[in-house]
Amino acid sequence: MAEEATRAAIEAGYRHIDCAYLYGNEVEVGRAIKEKIADGTIRREDLFYTGKLWSTFHPPDLVRPALEKSLQDLQMDYLDLFLIHTPLGLQPGEDLVPVDENGKYLYDNTDLRDTWEALERCKDAGLVKSIGVSNFNRRQLEWILNKPGLKYKPVCDQVECHLYLNQSKLLEFCKSHDIVLVAYSALGSSRDEAWGIDKDLPAVLEDPVLKSVADTQGRTPAQVALRYLLQRGIVALAKSFTPARIQQNLQVLDFQLSKEDMGRLEGRNRNVRYDSMLMWKDHPQYPFNDEY
């Protein structure tokens, strides 16, 4: 499925592919990319590929081997962007979500600043062009920014962000430090129960104000939801496996939302977080207890 979706996205005109070791599909994604390079649709330098360091690889000596495994699976020489997937360190080992015999999660307490230094070394080695973080709150970003001897600051923080969780305070903080805010779950969530997402939470794409603006614009709610983020200076990631929707989600650059529409959409914020990672709520570095 990932291979077909990646192929369809590249053919539709997408040039930013966001993936992660955790997703378990880098071999398939890499195959699709290699095919599209081979048939002349794209060159490697046309593509912006984002990968992520999973939480069981936070110890500095594990960072480069983890990155090299992703590069091998993707059949690439470098990544354009490499992120620390979460601030939540998990015990290194074969299991990506390690638990003890009682089902209790096994945590790792590697200092994130040491992990960051290992990412800096990967950048210096030419294995990645840029480095950043994901799911970090303001305080955790400040740990990195205030680290003695910091060589490269995070270029971005990829976080859940959509109409119902507009991240205005984190966005303001990031902009003040020239850090790009990247939105995942930009259209809300599929409410995947496997990750503890509450199916009773309201659905972003069914929001009446969003639908009203979409009707006025002659656009889909998804297109307006993405355009809302783009006009706020946020990079929006849209996930779909349906070719028609993959096409639709790209058609957000040829229209503008008015100041009035932006204000109406801004007022829909409810601080609803679909992916709260509640199973790790007792982790010392759990990021969502802070206001932002």
Automatic annotation (TrEMBL):
Substrate binds at H85. InterPro entries: AKR (IPR020471), Aldo/ket_reductase_CS (IPR018170), NAD(P)_OxRdtase_dom_sf (IPR036812), NADP_OxRdtase_dom (IPR023210). Gene3D superfamilies: NADP-dependent oxidoreductase domain. The active site is at Y23 (proton donor). Keywords: Acetylation, Eye lens protein. It comes from the Eukaryota. GO terms for molecular function: oxidoreductase activity; structural constituent of eye lens. The record marks K52 as: Lowers pKa of active site Tyr. Residues 2-266 form the NADP-dependent oxidoreductase domain. It holds the Pfam family Aldo_ket_red. The keyword Acetylation applies. Belongs to the aldo/keto reductase family. PANTHER family: ALDO/KETO REDUCTASE (PTHR11732). This is Rho crystallin. It comes from Eleutherodactylus coqui.
